[in-house]
Amino acid sequence: MSVINFGYASCTGVSILYVDALKSVGVPSRIVGTPAWNGVASNGNHNWVEVYLGVDPDCTVDCGDGWYFNEAYPAGPGEMFDNPCDKWFCNSGHFNPNDQLTTQVFAAKFSQTGNVNYPMAWDLDNKQIPGIDRSTYYMNVCSKC
To answer: What are the DSSP calls for 35-97, one per residue?
Structure first.
């Protein structure tokens, strides 16, 4: 509502609005993000959006599982779903397999089917939001950018 009422919101707010808009027209989408860049809370957190576009049958390298990601806002000029490296956060500075402090990424999901939760940076003790650990995917994709 803050986006509509005030014309702006945090990355979480605009991501929720983006997901709501996509879902309202039948596009599978979800909130995803990190509670702490490089595992350090004082580095800040960030949320963005994953959209299910299906697995590309012509893909041969880093095909993923059909989920692609994009910023809700402020998206950079020319950001595309098929180029992870055009997102400001998708780089080896945030996802470096050689660093001791790794950035963890989680996607929210509808129902609890395991013991993974979606950690919210503003309420890390809250274990009520079911999640999917997407850390390995982002490490594999973004460490190459």
So the answer is: SSGGG-GGG--EEEEEEE----TT--SS-TTSEEEE-SSSPPTT--TT-GGGSTT-STTTS-T
The pLDDT of residue 27? 95
What's the CA gap between 33 and 45, in Å, rounded? 8
Interatomic CA distance for residues 65 and 55, integer angstroms = 6
> Would you tell me how many other CB atoms lie within 10 Å of the CB of residue 135?
15
| Rounded distance between C-alpha atoms, residue 59 and residue 143, angstroms | 19
**Two tokens, residue 134:** 């997407």
Match 């999640």 to its residue by tokens.
131
- 3-class DSSP state for residue 15? helix
Which residues, in sequence order, are CB contacts of 107 under 8 Å at separation 6+? Answer: 30, 31, 32, 50, 67, 118, 131, 132, 134
Global model pTM greater than 0.85? yes
pLDDT score recorded for residue 62: 61
Whether 1 shows a pLDDT value over 90: the answer reads no
Domains of the chain, residue spans: 10-142
- 117, 108 contact by CB (below 8 A): no
